Amino acid sequence: MKNKKMGEEPLTLQESEARLKRVLEGSEQGFWDWELPSRQFIVSDRFETMLGYEPGEGDFTIDNWATHVHPDDLAKAIESINLHLAGKIPCHQVELRIRTKSGEWKYVLTHGKVVSWAEDGTPLMMSGTHTDITERKKAEKQVFEQAELLDLAHDAIIVLDINHTVTFWNRGAERTYGWSQEDVREQNLHQLLETKFPQPLAEIKEILFGTGQWEGELEHTTKNGARIVVASRWAVKRDENDRPVAIMEISRDMTERKALLTKLELQARQDYLTGLNNRGYFMELAEREIKKASRYGHNFSILMIDIDNFKIINDTYGHKSGDQVLIMLADIFQKTLRVADIEGRIGGEEFAIFLPETDQECAAVVAERLRSSVEMAEIPLHNGEVIMRFTISIGISTPTSSDYNLYTLLSQADEALYCAKHAGRNKVCIA
């Protein structure tokens, strides 16, 4: 349509209305006008053809419109209109079923708004549109039926519209998250669950709508405030025109499993009694640090530590007291050493410490500090009536060349430890 040239008369009100009508008739939406004082109800041709009538054939008046609406939808439609007319909601919008000429029910999204008022604020004219959403509702119903078949499944099965608003929530979801379906209906799922995604949501949607599915781990918040980890699978439902209309999410709570795996990983790395690194993990960490030192030319030292007369402690005070000694020593390590230092329990009463970026002189200072701290430590026994003390012997090795070999250095530190024992125990010796 060409624009009017300068100097031409502007469109009259009738011409503007006619143009608007042509535009609306050319769309997929039907439109309606309701003159409240006269109770005149006017519908467009598309409004009628949408329901199977020829233009002008349908008998749609404000007095009989309710007879065209499904009885189960009538109350919410009236409520929405009244709330809008009272100024309590910005517009009237509701999904409802309207009877077609053939007697079937068609789903329609009706949207209306007051467009004219009297001087005293009384509404005079309300205009709106009807949009056929039958195919969308059929697709949703199909998804719902599929989901309902799995309603007793242990997994959380949730159906969303394409804006991630909850439309179905099975019993598995109730068990997983704590909310009932009534609690969550029409809420945004990921706002409700405070979802933490492994990647931006836009990227997830791109994969989902491109391939039809997505899988990954998500973090969610339950009704009681607990954070859980779920393994989630998403699938998209499309209509006959290949437009996405619904998303199904199937999620399984993995929190306990992940906690168990974490526990098992710790058990594989930690000494069960002291909480220090076990021999295997100490060796792994030390090898890693040696490679770093070799690459950058950094110093490092290794301490081998043995509790003096540990067998006598066990024989005199019992194995429970021996365990207390081991735990006390680990605690002294934690309080005395740096965060970067690596401690490990190598054997029964034998320990090793890797000191990154530490030359021989500094290592001797650290070793003496540990020895002195242990010597002053007291372990109360038998309700505090008996105080047990113990000592340690320490051997130090520091590489003298760039040919770093962990097993050679440990052997050198062990030889120095033997010298400390031979010298009377409670000593520090350097290889």
Number of strands: 17
In the predicted model, the low-confidence regions spanning at least 5 consecutive residues are 1-8
Kindly provide the name of the CATH class of the largest domain.
Answer: Alpha Beta
Order of strands, main sheet, comes to 2-1-5-4-3
Features:
431 residues; five-stranded antiparallel sheet; Beta-Lactamase; rod-shaped; 17 strands; Alpha-Beta Plaits; alpha+beta
List the helices and strands and how they pair.
Layout: H1 13-25, E1 29-35, E2 40-43, H2 45-49, H3 65-68, H4 71-85, E3 92-99, E4 105-117, E5 123-132, H5 134-149, E6 156-160, E7 166-169, H6 171-177, H7 181-184, H8 189-192, H9 201-211, E8 213-221, E9 227-238, E10 244-253, H10 255-269, H11 279-296, E11 300-307, H12 310-317, H13 319-336, E12 342-345, E13 350-356, H14 360-376, E14 379-381, E15 386-388, E16 392-397, H15 406-422, E17 428-430
3D structure, described in words:
With 431 residues, this protein is α+β, with helices and mostly antiparallel strands. It folds into three domains: 110 residues, PAS domain (Beta-Lactamase); 122 residues, 2-Layer Sandwich (Beta-Lactamase); 161 residues, Reverse transcriptase/Diguanylate cyclase domain (Alpha-Beta Plaits, 2-Layer Sandwich). It contains 15 helices and 17 strands. Strands 2-1-5-4-3 form a five-stranded antiparallel beta sheet. It has a five-stranded antiparallel beta sheet with strand order 7-6-10-9-8. Strands 12-13-11-16-17 form a five-stranded mixed beta sheet, sandwiched between helices. Helix 12 crosses helix 13 and helix 13 packs across helix 14. The longest helix is centred in the last third of the chain and has 18 residues. The termini are far apart. 26% of the residues are buried.
